[in-house]
Amino acid sequence: MSKSPNPPILPPGPPLPPPRPSPYGSHRMRLDDTEADVMDMFPAMQKGMARADALGSWLKQFYVAVKKLLFASIVLLALPMDVVLHHRFGVRALTAPVIAMLVAVVYGMGRLFARSYEDGLVIYVTVGFTCIALTHAVLAHIRQRRGIPWHSRSAGMPYAFWSGLPGGKSPITVMRFHEPIAVILAGIVLSPFTGLGPLVSLMGYALFARRWMEWHELRGDILDQLDAQLEAEIMQDFVKGERGSWDTAGYVVPPVEMFKNLTPAASAEDALKSVEGMLDTPEVEIVSKPSEQQREVT
What we know:
- This protein has about 300 residues and is mainly alpha-helical.
- The protein has helices at about 35-85, 95-115, 120-145, 170-190, 195-240, 270-280, 290-295; strands at about 85, 155-160.
- The chain has a domain at about 65-230.
- The protein is built from 7 helices and 2 strands, in the order αβααβαααα.
- The longest helix is centred in the first third of the chain and has 53 residues, at about 35-85.
- Mean pLDDT is about 80; it is low at about 25-30 and about 280-290.
């Protein structure tokens, strides 16, 4: 039997490319082409997610800023009517910057709405609002020095003459409905005689918007507190088995089996026993008492 000829010796080819570095560390020396291409996409995905998070954060901050700016504008526009319609302000409600902004709003908006021959009227109205605001601020500081308890940020209370009207027994009802409606109607009545009439009506609408926003914010805070109390009561009864899954007052809770192993242990020994039962390896031993070697050392 003849021997087969030796295979031809091929010339050496180009050197192999070095292995690509693994993103998982040094324990993986080489990735195939498909997995390496996928891993190359991770930095781009991370950059895209970071940009999306930054955009979402920017939009949230923009929304909060616009909301604060809108609320501040409404408060400033309604402030002159608060000064006229209320009394017993807090010491921090009419500070010097607030009164300065009040003067700027009354004079600036008055010049914008007033007719050409009403420049003197705008000045008189501005001086009148300023004097009323300063009087409220002085009285607030007098009450504080006398030790009379009063909310420092109070925007004042309605006068007693509203109590004779339907719904006038409640200050919040007067502030939400009676005062804005009265201001709007007063602006409508004054419109044929002066250019400040539409401005008065605009302040009435701003007053109504401010009261509506404050009322819904206050109502939301109260409902949050009541919901927290209800959730705590429901969870406590549900874990004890005193309340069914469908009797949760609209608060959806997970299955009760999830809470069986979450009850606190009665003592340290019970906690050690529960941990020992959870361990699968018999080699692990939990020492609850000092060993002989520890006693010798001590």
